[in-house]
Amino acid sequence: MLVAALAACGSEEAAPQADPPVHLTIAVSAGFPKNSELIFDSLVMAKGDDVLPLLATAVAAESNNRIFSLPLRKGVTWHDGKPLTADDVAASLRRAGVQQIQSVVPNGDSVTVNLKAPDPEFPRRVLARTPIMRPGDAKTGTGPYKLTAPDTLTANASYFGGKPQVATIKATVIPQAAAQLAALRGGKVHLIAGALPARYVEELRKQDQIGVAQGTEFGATTLTFNTARPPFDRPEVRRAVARGVDVEELVNTALYGQGTPGSPGFVHIESPLQGMPQPLLFDPEQGRRELDSLGAKAGPGGVRVLEGKAMRYRLIIDSGSSERLRAAELIRDKLHDIGIAVEVKPVADVRKISAYDMALREWPAPVQLSGAGLSWMLNTAGFESPALRTLTTSPVLQTRIDAAGTLQNQIAQQVPFLTLYYPYGSYAFRKDVYDGWRWQNGATLLNRLSFVEYELD
Q1: Mean pLDDT of the chain
Q2: 155: β partners
Q3: CATH code of the domain covering residue 156
Q4: CATH no. for residue 343?
Q5: DSSP-assigned states of every residue in 153-191
Q6: Among 205, 92, 185, 70, which residue's Cα sits nearest to residue 141?
């Protein structure tokens, strides 16, 4: 009011007022993530398919990607104002306990990382995901926000990457999804940190003050066959069974359309491993013909008999998810149409059950973001191929990508598992409070790019 009165009485125009600071409250299911990239920077950051400098100004690879030299950005300080040093970075990397690192050597304003074996994926897979923490202090970082209370982040005004666009971020624990949504609608929280259940997405999109950001997180759900147990030790049986599963229907029904049908080769089309477009396997008529050719004859109740045994199998799923249950029921119904009986059995933890016929498994983002992740997943599924070794040992990135392509063709042919779908990551926020969220494939909205417009050399 005083500024307005002075402007009316004088001949000079009043200086424009700055926008009021933005204060966000986010709903979390448990505690605030203490290793958040908002608090701790990494040496480089992933953005799309690129790896960009952050604390390091460059990544110089030597000796066939076994040695990485990392010149550090000058003038970077910890949250308390003390300078970041090469000794600090080296100590933080050592403490991270990355098994493939042989040694970390500080040298003036740079750090050299020596690996036990060449790894062209090391910058994206490790450097971009390893937070740099001050030795002996797990709360102080160099990132755009300071942890000023167990549930509160405050903008770091001296952040080298640029001014954070939100003043404070406060987390409030709300365990139940329905209660989180009620708090969002009522304006008590401004972002739900966890991914939305698919059934809520379209409803929220219709509300004026609520926005939904969506994209792939590179997670996947697969129908995994126990390849150590007959008849699923035979690729031709697995492939015939896969012909009866309609992955597009699973997306439209179990995910309410909020996902992408799975590739028979597993790897998502947008993955850095370069997913290969492949035709879907669903073809019930072809599946029946293939089962006929295998000698699977119709038996009592329409259930086929193969090698003297009825084709009745148990499909185990993790309990507690309506999405998984609905997907399993749809698979059961579709396989019944080609003469296979399925019993859906919810269990506490699918990973702990070794005696099963088929299982619904969920795989997290890192599996599709690097050759090491894909190799781990394939080993877990009992899949063998010479290309697996190339995927993790070649010093040349393109050679690893080529190996991933070979593996995708082999997976589509041998079907040790069938990729059902890749769910979208969907996040709801109050766009009337803050609308600067930036989606990153494979990450949530709570990433540094949502709060800082980086312009680094």
Answers
A1: 91
A2: 145
A3: 3.40.190.10
A4: 3.10.105.10
A5: EEE-TT-TT---S-SEEEEEE--SHHHHHHHHHTTS-SE
A6: 92
Residues 55 and 121 in one domain: yes
What is the domain range of residue 64?
Answer: 40-142
277: left (phi over 0), alpha (psi -120 to 50) or beta: beta
Give the global pTM: 0.88
Closest by Cα among 132, 131, 125 to 366: 125
| Distance in angstroms (rounded) separating the CA atoms of residues 99 and 110 | 21
pLDDT digits (tens, 9 = 90+) for 104-146: 999 999 999 999 999 999 999 999 999 999 988 888 999 999 9
In three-state secondary structure terms, 359 is strand
In angstroms and rounded to an integer, the radius of gyration of the C-alpha atoms of the chain is 26
Among 353, 348, 378, CA closest to 363: 378
Q: pLDDT-based confidence at 33, cuts 50/70/90?
A: low
If asked whether residues 400 and 447 sit together in one domain, one would say no
In tens, the pLDDT along 346-369 reads 999 999 998 999 999 999 988 998
DSSP secondary structure, 274-321, as one string? -PPP------HHHHHHHHHHTT-EE-GGG-EEETTEE-EEEEEEESS-
**CA 97 – CA 130 distance, rounded (Å):** 10
Residues 256, 137: one domain? no
Cβ count near 223 (within 10 Å) = 25
Question: Over the stretch 379-424, which tens digit does the pLDDT of each residue have?
Answer: 888 888 999 999 999 999 999 999 999 999 999 999 999 999 999 9
Do residue 443 and residue 382 come from a single domain?
no
Same domain for 174 and 318?
no
Same domain, 244 and 119: no
Number of domains in the chain: 3
Dig out the tokens for 83 from the structure. 């300078």
